[in-house]
Amino acid sequence: MVPDAPLPLEPRDYENWSRMIAVAGVPTATPQTDDEALALVRWAAREGYRVRPMGAFHTWSPLAFEEADRVIAIDQSRLTGLLDFALEPVPTATFRAGTTLAEAVRALEGIDNHGASEAPGWAWPDYPGVPDVTIGGMLAIGAHGAGIRQRAEQPDLFGTVSNLVVSFRAIVSDGDDYVFREFRRDEPEAAALLVHLGAAYLLSVTMRVVPNTFLGRRVDYPDWRVAYAPAPAEGSIQALVEEHGRVQALWFPFTQTPLVQHFTEEGYVEGPRVTEPLTVRLSPDLPTAFTTAFTQTLAHLPWLTPLVERATLREMRHLSPPDQEWHGTSGNMLLYVQHDTLRVVSLAYAVHVRAGEVQSAIHDIAHHFDRMLHDYAHAGHDPINSCLEMRVTDVDRAEAVGVPGAVPAMLSPGLPMEDSERVVWIDLVTTPGMPLAWQFYAEYEAWLWQRFPARLRPEWSKAWAVSADGPWTDPTVLASVRGAISPAVATWDALDARGVYGSPLLDRLRASSTLC
After folding, report:
1. Which residues contact 73 (CB under 8 A, 6 or more apart)?
2. What mean pLDDT value characterizes the chain?
3. Are 29 and 74 in contact, with CB atoms under 8 Å apart?
4. Is pLDDT larger for residue 352 or for residue 310?
5. b/e map of 336-359 (b: 16 or more CB within 10 Å)?
6. Sheet containing 165-174, strands listed edge to edge, beginning at the edge strand earlier in sequence
């Protein structure tokens, strides 16, 4: 029995994006104010419970949930909204951490930018594609979009959203008690909380914004040998990135033409425009019953994969034909991932390269994927039935935020490594339950570490450290991750003295990292 809590608790079931992690009956409270959230954390600390702030639960990994034992979820759906906007010393907007990305876009576009751009209002330099994720959830794992800086007058802020943070308010420990505390970006402790993996509870965040932009979107279906050529050339991904800035490439197994969409900054365009998120489409709405049946069918009949991939590409060409252009503001154009779409599992990494190495990295990533696909197919196996996705961003530049002495986001996948300038973000996607999928992922991941030594960081919310037993189990990768998080552990421990925050996966990493 849960003892009397300061707010009503109702049991809720939680299921992650891939539907591979499901936890039933989690006691859940819905605070209306920061004071109520603080009361819950204090109560949990006294009673030996842990708290998990919950947003959209758009995650693949067990950093959020593995179990419901002595865990209280805090529903963030009432802790939302724009709190403040300021132009000095740099333009910033302050949001509650439960605010969704779509809500933030609408709020920013409604603030007058006094002619700073042709597009209305303000924006972030770039956006992840999922409208219903919360700001708090994105900051916990260092979410990202696709884009590089193309003009010298643009602030160099095309890394992760965590690098946009100027300050934030969190609930942290003070002795045995828990209190509100404001953190500035120039405080050393902030470095461990800008990407915290669930080891902290942020209530509100002040983030850098820029004048909004209009974007033009076009989708092409080039020959894969052109898109993934060994060196930059016309039509290659690197050439498209340099020309357009924001580029995403999706390549489905056993097809010859990847889908490549690019977004180009432009002025006001007369004629039809996208006026709300989710208008731009890459996939149809798919009811849960259909996606479940589809996934189960492919798991039992994997030899259907080549037929399914060609049909998928045809459907995408129907939704996004190559002779059609879309125009609209940045948020309305870039938020396009449907909630009712095929649920998949994704092996995901950030590959750090110099600016001139983008195409050679993309070539090797794609061609090794193709070789492995055909080797498995020749042996009668088709474990991968969705796409290889690639996007390119700049690395995080803490000095561009506009805060003197700004600390970097210590655990950001976009944190610069040696002389890296760009990040090639890769997602290798399949549906859950495919035979030999974990083996394929493990082999591909091992190749990534061999091809890009000291150049990789995992995407925290997705699958990594894959062995034959599944994700988050490979001892070699886990050892690397433990070493990576070890500088943050002392700060986490100091700011959460009663161990209220975290998850079993993070506990395993933290406990081992203290021995490194």
Report:
1. 12, 14, 26, 27, 28, 29, 51, 52, 53, 54
2. 93
3. yes
4. 352
5. bbbeeebbbbbbbbbbbbeeebbb
6. 82-86, 92-96, 202-208, 165-174, 177-184
Whether the Cβ atoms of residue 239 and residue 248 lie closer than 8 Å to each other: no
- What whole-number distance in Å separates Cα of residue 163 and Cα of residue 177? 30
pLDDT band at 516; cut points 50, 70, 90: very low
Count other Cβ atoms within 10 Å, centred on residue 66.
Answer: 16
CB contact set of 219 (below 8 Å; sequence gap of 6+): 259, 260, 261, 320, 321, 322, 324
Asked if residue 29 lies in contact with residue 75, where contact means CB atoms within 8 angstroms, the answer is yes
Q: What percent of the chain has pLDDT over 70?
A: 97
Burial label, 204 (beta-carbon count in 10 A; 0-12, 13-18, 19+): buried
Name the phi and psi angles at 227, rounded to 5.
-60, -40
How sure is the predictor about 411, in pLDDT bands with cuts at 50, 70 and 90?
Answer: very high
Query: Are 403 and 166 a contacting pair, CB within 8 Å?
Result: yes
- Please, are residues 217 and 352 in contact by the beta-carbon 8 Å criterion? no
User: Counting beta carbons within 10 angstroms of the beta carbon of residue 272, is it exposed (0 to 12), middle (13 to 18) or buried (19 or more)?
Assistant: exposed
Structure tokens that stand for 377 in this block: 């197919």
The three-point CA angle 266-268-272 to 5° equals 110
Q: What is the pLDDT of residue 515?
A: 43
Greatest alpha-carbon pair distance for the chain in Å reads 65
> What pTM did the predictor assign?
0.95
Beta-carbon contacts of residue 107 (< 8 Å; ≥ 6 apart): 81, 82, 93, 95, 99
Q: What is the pLDDT of residues 174-186, one digit of tens each?
A: 999 999 999 999 9
What is the β-pairing status of strands 71-75 and 50-54? Answer: parallel
Residue carrying structure tokens 């593995």: 66
HSE-up of 468 (CA within 13 Å, CB side)? 0
H-type alpha helices, 182-275: 224-227, 237-244
pLDDT over threshold 80, residue 22: yes
Q: pLDDT tens digit string along 433-489? A: 999 999 999 999 999 999 999 999 999 999 999 999 999 999 999 999 999 999 999
Which residues on adjacent β-strands are paired with residue 353?
A: 422
Specify the higher pLDDT residue, 295 or 487. 487
For residue 178 the two structure tokens come to: 């828990």
